[in-house]
Specification:
The protein contains eleven helices and 17 strands. By secondary structure, the protein is α/β, with parallel strands linked by helices. The chain has two domains: 2-71 and 208-410, Zn peptidases (Aminopeptidase, 3-Layer(aba) Sandwich), CATH 3.40.630; 86-196. Strands 1, 2, 4, 7, 9, 10, 13, 14, 15, 16 and 17 form an eleven-stranded mixed sheet that branches. A four-stranded mixed sheet has the order 3-8-6-5. Helix 2 crosses helix 6 (241-261) and helix 6 (241-261) packs across helix 10 (392-405). The radius of gyration is 23 Å and the shape is globular.
Length: 425
């Protein structure tokens, strides 16, 4: 295995250095180790959004982007992309539902408003079929006001959502859930809530393209994790080394690599998302500041610190079959010994569970690259997700392979087809 890895390192280095005399960028394991160890250190407190720990991580990433020579996004003064989220504790609720009186036991409001009052026509009414979890959770991502009706066949889901602490973002639609068996002809709902508001920030920067500046290629990962949780053998800190300090480390490393080369014809955007773990808020906010038609491709990088099910020199791409993004990457890796595979865990719905999802739903070839064995990754979302459990040598090779596989796209010579979606996705 060491011999194969050595050949791979030699090949990737030759390919990376042969395209241009100006192209002197390299991908160094020492940088990977430094960034990963910093993000997953105990003093980052598990990078929960919001917390002092994630604020410290944000400041570190700002510094790294500045050192890499990135520029702020158009119109931005710096690398922070700030926004507010609000978590509502419903205090009182009352309503008229076709003449039936409702109270707090049958109403839930996920809202950015302390006082909400809806009458007929103030929201789109949706009544999912029995057990249609996809439709239920899709309601949380809708832009307009939504009135979700859960009947007796979805009673257990209503009970779960009563205790579901989901925040809403400024500018997003309000969501009210009512436990009832019918879509009403007339309704009048009032909810009073106590709001807890927090400021969050993505960290984003770019390298402007040389000839096709208006066409963007995104490299992303989320830098938040879970913070503190239930102690296990005296350890209550979820360091989140693989999830997703590994992906964020890749973003920083790639930013350094491409900045030194500066041979990209298309513009390159590098973004570390916040609040993926608590609802994907960072990527959702970021998407509102990107014109989907301007985004040629998105390389979202999530959990690449462990070997894939195929071993080293391999990774998988979620939604592989939905565009020719993966085929392009593999074509540019020809002869390297590295292989990108289709997602082997289709039942996990990973394509819609990471930060690529918002732009993918708008047709962007936005895919997640990962090695995580989602059926057996024993340290996933545990206190044991620490740097010592990761293979940073293989992780460095994965980052090199991502860099080289992207060459056709960033040069403007290759353009992935747009993502295809199924009805209701």
């Amino acid at each position: 295995m060491r011999h194969i890895l050595a050949v791979s390192v030699l090949f990737l280095t030759m390919v990376a250095c042969s395209t241009s005399k100006k192209a002197s960028g390299t991908i160094d394991r020492s940088l990977v180790d430094r960034v990963l160890n910093t993000l997953a250190a105990d003093d980052m407190e598990g990078r929960k959004a919001p917390s002092p720990g994630i604020e410290k991580a944000a400041a570190f990433l700002e510094q790294e982007f500045r050192k890499a020579g990135l520029q702020p996004l158009p119109g931005a003064q710096g690398f922070r992309q700030e926004f507010m989220i609000h978590q509502a504790e419903n205090l009182t609720a009352e309503g008229d539902w076709d003449g039936t009186r409702l109270d707090l036991s049958r109403i839930i409001a996920y809202t950015t408003k302390a006082d909400l009052h809806w009458k007929n026509g103030d929201a789109e009414v949706i009544k999912p079929a029995a057990g249609d979890r996809s439709a239920i959770f899709a309601a949380f991502d809708r832009e307009g006001n939504t009135l979700l009706v859960l009947d007796s066949t979805n009673a257990n889901m209503f009970k779960r959502l009563k205790n579901f602490k989901m925040a809403k973002m400024d500018g997003s639609g309000e969501l009210v859930i009512v436990q009832a068996d019918n879509i009403p002809m007339n309704y009048d709902l009032k909810v009073s809530s106590q709001l807890k508001s927090d400021k969050l920030a993505n960290i984003a920067g770019m390298i402007h393209g040389r000839s096709r500046k208006e066409e963007n290629v995104i490299f992303s990962g989320h830098y938040d994790h879970l913070g503190y949780g239930k102690p296990v053998d005296g350890d209550s800190l979820f360091n989140g080394a693989n999830d997703d300090a590994s992906g964020t480390t890749a973003v920083v490393t790639l930013a350094n690599y491409f900045s030194k080369r500066h041979d990209n014809e298309r513009s390159l955007v590098f973004v570390a998302f916040t609040a993926e773990e608590s609802g994907g808020f960072g990527s959702r906010y970021f998407s509102t500041h990107m014109t989907p038609a301007s985004v040629v491709a998105m390389f979202n990088i999530e959990m690449i610190g462990t070997d894939s099910k195929w071993g080293t020199n391999s990774a998988y791409i979620t939604g592989y079959e939905r565009s020719d993004f993966g085929a392009i990457l593999q074509e540019d890796l020809q002869g390297s010994g590295f292989t990108f595979h289709p997602d082997p865990y289709p039942d996990q719905n990973l394509f819609f569970r990471s930060d690529n999802a918002t732009l993918a739903r708008q047709g962007v070839p936005a895919h997640t690259i990962s090695t995580s064995k989602m059926d057996s990754e024993k340290f996933y979302h545990t206190v044991n997700d620490e740097v010592g459990t990761l293979d940073t040598g293989n992780m460095t090779e994965i980052i090199k392979s991502i860099a080289i596989s992207s060459k056709g796209i960033i040069s403007g010579k290759k353009t992935p087809t747009r993502v295809t979606l199924k009805p209701g996705e």
